[in-house]
Amino acid sequence: MKNDAIMVTGATGVLGRQVLDRARHTGLPVRALTRRATLPDDPGVAWFTGDLAAGTGLDEAFAGVRTVIHCASDIRHFKNDIPAFHHLLEAARRAGVEHIVNISIVGIDRIPYPYYRIKLAGERLLETSGIGWTNLRATQFPELLNMAFGVLSKLPVVIVPTGTDCQPVDQGEVADRLVELALGEPGAGEPPAGGWGRVPDLAGPTVYPADRLARDWLRAAGKRRRVLPVFIPGKLGAGFRSGALTAPDRAVGKRTWEEYLAEHVAR
């Protein structure tokens, strides 16, 4: 079997859905991995049931795959992401996968947040995997901020970390870039000082204080809540306040936070 297919993991997630939609237009066979037993009726995509964390159902799904775009992550049980990455790499080696494109997060090497440590460990696994790889770090997705503020606004006060800047980047633009990278060679382009395979970060057009993002969201959603910036002590808080969540020199995204709010949140 010729290995020419693109596999998207996490294909039902916020980013994975966007990646899958764009992969359909590449002209290549497209596969998607889900833990669901009932597979979508999707004539443009070959869906497979598999569990990365358990390592089940992967060999059939990966057979014939040249490139994996790895979007799967379980933020609620993020410790499962490392065994899942191990299983992905093992299945990829068995199947003869040539290229893994991984999405990661700006600032994970400078902020000692537990989920970020897991993401960084995943990057290091990829670097030493022996498989061709490309790693893209992006800033915050508006859809995830929307979900977070939706939960926080259920309380009388919306709490945000003080002195923390964010730089939302449209998840659709990140999906465009991931598919572009998947169609190229591993680590295509000039790598930054992070090692071969890591491509320049992708950040949104504007840097905002976290409290400004919260107030903008509340205004768009028509909710009256007080926004309370809270000082986070220690290295974690210092990391947030250092600007590590942003990449002003990589403000290449086009779609703004205000445009997202107008389209998806405003009433």
TrEMBL record:
UniProt keyword annotations, A-Z:
Photosynthesis, Photosystem II
Gene3D superfamilies reported in the protein's UniProt record = NAD(P)-binding Rossmann-like Domain (3.40.50.720)
Xref: InterPro entries:
HCF244-like, NAD(P)-bd_dom, NAD(P)-bd_dom_sf
Residue span(s) of domain NAD(P)-binding: 10-140
Q: Where is the signal peptide?
A: none
* Alphabetical list of Pfam families matching this protein: NAD_binding_10
Q: Name one GO biological process term.
A: photosynthesis
Cellular compartments per GO CC: photosystem II
This protein is called Uncharacterized protein YbjT (DUF2867 family)
Organism, as annotated = Kitasatospora gansuensis
According to the entry, what is the taxonomic lineage of the organism?
Answer: Bacteria, Bacillati, Actinomycetota, Actinomycetes, Kitasatosporales
